[in-house]
Amino acid sequence: xxxxxxxxxxxxxxxxxxxxxxxxxxxxxxxxxxxxxxxxxxxxxxxxxxxxxxxxxxxxxxxxxxxxxxxxxxxxxxxxxxxxxxxxxxxxxxxxxxxxxxxxxxxxxxxxxxxxxxxxxxxxxxxxxxxxxxxxx
Amino acid sequence: xxxxxxxxxxxxxxxxxxxxxxxxxxxxxxxxxxxxxxxxxxxxxxxxxxxxxxxxxxxxxxxxxxxxxxxxxxxxxxxxxxxxxxxxxxxxxxxxxxxxxxxxxxxxxxxxxxxxxxxxxxxxxxxxxxxxxxxxxxxxxxxxxxxxxxxxxxxxxxxxxxxxxxxxxxxxxxxxxxxxxxxxxxxxxxxxxxxxxxxxxxxxxxxxxxxxxxxxxxxxxxxxxxxxxxxxxxxxxxxxxxxxxxxxxxxxxxxxxxxxxxxxxxxxxxxxxxxxxxxxxxxxxxxxxxxxxxxxxxxxxxxxxxxxxxxxxxxxxxxxxxxxxxxxxxxxxxxxxxxxxxxxxxxxxxxxxxxxxxxxxxxxxxxxxxxxxxxxxxxxxxxxxxxxxxxxxxxxxxxxxxxxxxxxxxxxxxxxxxxxx
Lengths: 137, 421
Fold this sequence. Notes:
The complex is a heterodimer of chains A (137) and B (421). Chain A is α+β, with helices and mostly antiparallel strands and 137 residues long.
């Protein structure tokens, strides 16, 4: 037996095969009394039910947070969470923020300075029309 | 106030103790199954700890209470796992159902059941053992047919490693994590049914795996005897791993089940095992409620679509010798290594490019800092290109023919075997 096997684990890429929405839970905090929550209360009354029914993948938790500004918090599959203070915003602005949290992957925001991120790195990089001999037209 | 008769009291306690299961064991008696279906009434325990013993505590006849012990009221004991009815009201569970895009044919109660490890609830009607068994069988079948038809020349050891890389416990653990599964701190009745429930300190049940317990399994485990590849194919499980025999230490006072299977054992990494069993159980649940084709699509989408570079699994010991044997077996000319190009032979970082030729055909090419290293890497590349031959992505698998309007099965090419075994 001259061949031995090394143990490796397969690597998954979200969206190849199946897509899993990375936001798994959204916490919605409001205050009944203070004015900074006026938009949030309108959002909860008018738009949250529709938003939640179109996103059954996300668990929504609405809870009061008296005498504090309203906050939206998204919890992600990688264990991180993202909070946005939505004080004094109107309900449409809050809806935009909720969509932002829904679309986020939960990763830290970092600068991407390579054109391609891959698990099978190319040796040569991306082809460029401006280098080499050029393209005959 | 009656006088307490200590001697009678102790004899009564002694007689009553064996009748109830030990608190460490989590086994639920059968009588509990009936009480689970209707939610347990929340009656507080009437037998309080007052030393003023009520008349039923003290028996006049010490012999009578041995014959007729007081029946245990199971309705007052907490359930080991959440009641199935609570699955309908769990937001986490509904979110998980939607996140996996499961069909509405799969009820939430079944999904809740897939989350309960046998270490949390030993009753097979409420844990995921049976679903995970179905799921594991399906998953291993689809993985193996995918690998064998896609890479017909893989050596058996690499095939086992690839099976483990796709459908083994570490890979399934990663999949469960990527699905956003959270584990409950401790299993219990009050836990949200959307959390994965297992207990690291209690024995779990490994599914009775496909494979045979070898007669010499005890010696194999103790003295690390060598196992040949042929016997691993014949006896061992889908990953070429030894099916463990009955372990002695798992049955000391921790009674799980007598009539089910005797292969209960304590697994090393309970958390990983519980996550993997959950993924298998979901596949089993998809199979039971939606059928064969949907289960296959699910396994393809979540397990087989992951990337595993099979070329990285090889670890050659004698690549040049193996290449010579391969050429002899296939009636090729004997391989010859030729230097194709070199640079900086006398420098600190020389580079040699060596090609291996059989007659006029180039079998492989390798780069290395010395002539020998380049020759060996060229031989490794030649062998890898032989072993990793693939007829392409479009090759069919045997389970395609199970569909209604499928074309008849055309046999695919599978190689005769390893070069040196």
